[in-house]
Amino acid sequence: MSLAIAVRDVEKRYRTWRNRAGLCALDGVTLEVPRGVAFGLLGPNGAGKTTFIKVLLTIVRPERGLLHVLDGDPEDPRIRARVGYLPERLELPAHFTPMTFLASVSRLKRVPPLRDGLFRLLDRVGLASDANRKIGGFSKGQKQRLGLAAALVGTPDLLVLDEPTDGVDPMGRVEIRNLLGAELARGCTVFLNSHLLAETERVCSRIGIIAAGRLVRQGSLEELCRAEGRWRVRFAEGADAARLADIGFRTAGEEFLFAGDDLLALNRALDRARAAGAVIAEVRPDEKDLEQVMSEALTPAPAPLTDPEARP
Amino acid sequence: MTVLAIAADLWRHAFARKWFLVLGAAVTLFLVFVALSLRLEVVDGALAGMRLFGQSTTLEITAVDVALRPIFKATAIILYYPFTLFLIALCAEFAPSLLQAGRIEHMLSLPVRRFELVLGTYLGVVGLSALFSLYGAGGLCLILGVKTGVLTLRPVLAALLGTTAFATVYSGMLAAAVLARSATSSAGVGMALYFAGVLAGYRTSLAPMMSEGISRRVFEAATAVLPRISTLGNVASDIAGGRAVSAAHVGGLCAGFLAFAAAVLAVTMWGFERKDY
To answer: Is residue B70 assigned to a domain?
Structure first.
């Protein structure tokens, strides 16, 4: 499997003169992102998401660990020329127009700054009509769109986006989602860091959850959201909840949950429910949403019970 | 190539700001003022009369090159001292704005090596200072040359020495900007280095005024490594004023200034390479 990002055992501490030991931002993070997928990095504030992105792009130097981006060293300008990055709080030169800014990024990426190409990029992010306005007068959402256009300069193989829809209106979010979809279809890898779980769920097929500098979950969205051995059943109105409970269906809001891996057991239970007069409207595997997955990942495991008598 | 692209971006940034436009307009206005309002009457290589806004000024008949010396000397002094101070204030913001949170992350993610970013910024600012100095001094030489028939490049050389002094001071300003990311710190370090450099030029005559002991030794040690701003300033005004100056002396002074700037830049790059943003 070809990897867009391969990170092994990366550690980063922010040291100060007062605190020589430093604050641990990344603690042995190991992560692999295949090419052509959308990967979402989730985690609470201060978990190390932005630090991880900065380490990937060598904006922050790790203490130790191995980093490979697009099968090369991220320090290599040739590799960085194939990466598009949108920082979390992008500051843009206020005196520039979007066209001059994109032309500047193009030159630094060693891409010919052709006016038509740059205009097409602005059009893709919905800024065509503002191409010659000064950036200083832009709203936060417009700056974010321009940052995204800058990230797309040079048709990158990897897009690293830190909160890309921050400050963008709902319609803009849909446009950005469509744009990311088009980039994925082209074969680009998208690495997304967002607080918006619903957005991550819609865009990303693989998820990583980071907490206190450690990667606590990693996998495909399907794997992470699947609740082992549980089915969600919706009956038509009028079903007798008490009888269904006797059969093994536990109420969960307006639906019922059936625990068990065995498909035969499920079918037998459904037969009994139908025999009891219940009409089945829908049966599906019970899947957790990303909020639940994150909440479970971030909840510390209960401490093992100890017997006070056993203490010396 | 990348270094030049960064320097060119800095120029675009500068020319989009009103203060630089004001500076350019002020220098142009001064040159237009000299070109249109000053009439010089030259007879057989001697300045016979001068009219400013039509008002004749009485003066002794002197050889043109001698008569122009005080003008060139004054131009050199203006370019070397007040103009450099103005540039320190004006250019203090460039590096901190490039290094501000949200912008530097984006710059560092591009295929740009960190030393290229430092060098590009440095060359951009020094180039900008050279442009304005040469525009002012060169324009004045050309106008007076056309009016009098005596063309000299001495004020241009003096302006280049002014740029050398500014280039040295700006290396310290850039180091401060990388360390503190603040325009105020950058300007403060620039001013401090500039005035300390002026003192350093007179260190041998100032040191005996201090009582012998630790304070004098500290003063001597501290000023020993500083660029001799006032010494180079005197050389610049001497060159513009037509006095003979030893090429070896000028070369040695410039080499010292450039060595100081190169050392400070090397330390700045080393620090920048290790910094997290």
So the answer is: yes
Tens digit of each residue's pLDDT (9 = 90 or more) over A263-296 = 888 899 999 999 999 999 999 888 777 888 888 8
What value does the mean pLDDT of chain B take? 91
Q: How confident is the model at residue A7 (pLDDT cuts 50, 70, 90)?
A: very high
Range of the domain at B97: 2-33+65-274
Note the pTM of the prediction, 2 decimals.
Answer: 0.85
Q: Where are the domains positioned within chain A?
A: 33-58+77-223, 227-297
Q: Of 3.30.420.10, 3.30.110.40, 3.10.20.30, 3.40.50.300, which CATH number belongs to A33-58+77-223?
A: 3.40.50.300
The more confidently predicted of residues A285 and A84 is A84
Contact B110 A78 (CB under 8 A): no
Structure tokens at B260: 């100081």
| Contact call for B108 and A14, based on CB within 8 A | no
Task: State whether CATH 3.30.70 applies to domain A227-297.
Answer: yes
> According to the 3-state scheme, what is the secondary structure of B196-229?
HHHHHHCHHHHHHHCCCCHHHHHHHHHHHCCCCH
B56 found inside a domain: no
Write the ipTM. Answer: 0.82
| Contact: B103, A91; criterion CB under 8 Å | yes
Helix ranges (DSSP H) in chain B: 2-15, 18-37, 64-80, 82-91, 94-99, 104-109, 114-148, 154-180, 183-201, 203-206, 214-224, 229-240, 247-274
Pairs of CB atoms within 8 A across A/B: 77
Confidence of residue B150 (pLDDT cuts 50, 70, 90): confident
